Please model this.
Amino acid sequence: MNPRHSPTPWRADEKLIQSIVRGPVAVVRAGPRHDEFEAETNARRIVDCVNACAGIADPVNTLLMVRIRIKSVADQLRATDQGIIAELLEEALDKLGPAE
Model:
């Protein structure tokens, strides 16, 4: 964990994001083209992502390495006539969204 970040776990109370340990972290506001419900949904999404990555020193790099490994396993499976399993792995990668 980066000592400059608020400690996890976090929770969302409507648009307010709070660290259970230290209290308020941020308030998510609705932009000019967004409504209040979307702001609350974004707050929950932010909290879910932060809590899911708790304890991972470098989440971006870790996810990149996981993607590379899954792709490698899929390629190996395809080479051994286990294409259906390879396809399932690649579908899972697609659901993770684009690698950045």
